[in-house]
Specification:
Low-confidence stretches: 101-109
Pfam family, one: PPDK_N
Largest sheet: 6 strands, antiparallel
Strand order of the largest sheet: 9-8-7-6-12-13
Distance between the termini: 35 Å
CATH superfamily of the largest domain: ATP-grasp fold, A domain
CATH topology of the largest domain: Dna Ligase, domain 1
InterPro entries: ATP_grasp_subdomain_1, PEP_Utilizing_Enz, PPDK_AMP/ATP-bd
Number of domains: 2
Shape: globular
CATH class of the largest domain: Alpha Beta
CATH architecture of the largest domain: 2-Layer Sandwich
Order of helices and strands: EHHEHHHHEEHHEEEHEEEEHHEE
Helix content: 25-40%
Number of strands: 13
Protein name: Pyruvate phosphate dikinase AMP/ATP-binding domain-containing protein
GO molecular function, one term: kinase activity
Length: about 290
C-alpha cells in the first residue's frame, strides 16, 4: 500500500510512514484532536525514484516534471477525494521522514511544508517538492553534522486537513531554556503557526507550573500574522488591539497545559507540540520528543 489514512497507522512502522505521521496517528488512536489526513509512504517515494525520469533528473525542475506512477497517483487521488467528502477543502503537505523528530535530532525546519494547498494537481506537485527536499543541501548538511546517514531514502509525506487558525503556537512540556520539568512553556500568536516556527513574530509567552497551576505571561509584539491566501499563504500586519491583548485566555492556556501533560504521559518523555485553535477548538498538529 502506497498511501495510508492517518487513522489506520496502528501497527505501521515508522520506517514506512515517517515520524511525524506515526506520532500523529498514535495521538489520533488516543482520541486526541488531530486533523484528518493521509500519508504517502516511504515505499511510494522509493518507487518514484526508481522511475527513469526521476532517476535521471539533474535539476529540481526535471525532478518535479517526472510523473508519479499511476497507481500511486490514483491512491493519492482517492484519499484526497475522501478528505473533500468530509468538508476538507485545503490541506497542508508536510514531510514525514523516518529520520525526523528523533530524540537526538529533530530535523525541525529542514524539510519542506506547503500550506493551504487546494487542488489535487497542486497536492501532487507539493508531494514531489517534499520528496525533493530530502536531497537539499540544508538537509544533507544537517544530517552530516548530526552523524546521520540519509542512504535509506526514508521520506514519507503527510497530507492533512488545513486548520484555518485564529491562534496557533508551540508548546514545550519542560522549559526549553532551563530544562525545568515542572514548567510548561507555550508560545502563541495570531494566524497560522508558520509565523512562529519561521521566526517572523515575537509571540506571547505563557509559563505554567505543573505543581501549582500558576500562569506567568509575557506579552509578545506579534508583529504580523500568516493567513491562508487564495492558495498558499499571505502575511498581514496585526492590528494594534491584537498586539495589545494576549492571544490566549487563561482558560485556553490551562486547556493546552492539560493536553500537554496528557501527551507527555502517553509518550513517557518530554514533548514539543504544535497546535492551532479555530472557533475555540484546539487541534494538535505535531508531536515530537524534545531533542537533547
Amino acid at each position: 500500500m502506497n498511501v495510508i489514512n492517518l487513522s489506520a497507522l496502528k501497527g505501521v512502522s515508522v520506517q514506512r510512514v515517517g515520524s511525524k505521521a506515526r506520532n500523529l496517528g498514535a495521538m489520533l488512536d488516543q482520541g486526541l484532536p488531530v486533523p484528518p489526513g493521509f500519508v504517502v509512504t516511504v515505499d511510494a517515494f522509493q518507487t518514484f525514484l526508481r522511475g527513469h525520469a526521476a532517476e535521471s533528473a539533474e535539476t529540481e525542475a526535471e525532478f518535479l516534471a517526472a510523473p508519479i506512477p499511476a497507481q500511486i497517483a490514483a491512491e493519492i487521488a482517492e484519499q484526497y477525494k475522501a478528505l473533500q467528502q468530509h468538508a476538507v477543502y485545503a490541506v497542508a503537505v508536510r514531510s514525514s521522514s523516518a529520520l525526523e523528530d528523533l530524540n537526538s535530532a529533530s530535523f525541525a525546519g529542514q524539510y519542506e511544508t506547503f500550506l493551504n494547498v487546494r487542488s489535487l494537481d497542486s497536492v501532487l506537485v507539493q508531494i514531489k517538492r517534499c520528496w525533493y527536499s530530502y536531497f537539499s543541501p540544508v538537509v544533507q548538511n544537517y544530517a552530516r553534522n548530526q552523524n546521520i546517514s540519509l542512504d535509506s531514502l526514508a521520506m514519507g509525506v503527510l497530507v492533512q486537513g488545513m486548520v484555518d487558525a485564529d491562534v496557533s503556537g508551540v508548546i514545550f512540556s519542560k522549559h526549553p531554556v532551563t530544562n525545568d520539568p515542572d514548567e510548561i512553556v507555550i508560545n502563541a500568536s495570531y494566524g497560522l503557526g508558520e509565523a512562529i516556527v519561521s521566526g517572523l513574530v515575537t509571540p506571547d509567552c505563557f509559563t505554567i507550573s505543573k505543581r501549582t497551576g500558576e500562569i506567568s505571561r509575557e506579552l509578545g509584539l506579534k508583529e504580523v500574522k500568516v493567513l491562508p491566501g487564495p492558495e498558499g499563504t499571505e502575511t498581514a500586519d496585526t492590528l494594534p488591539e491584537e498586539q495589545e491583548a494576549y492571544s490566549l485566555s487563561d482558560e485556553q492556556v490551562r486547556e493546552l497545559a492539560g493536553l500537554t501533560r496528557h501527551i507527555e504521559e502517553l509518550q513517557g518523555s518530554a514533548v514539543d507540540l504544535e497546535f492551532a485553535i479555530h472557533d475555540g477548538t484546539i487541534y494538535l498538529l505535531q508531536v515530537r520528543p524534545i531533542t537533547t
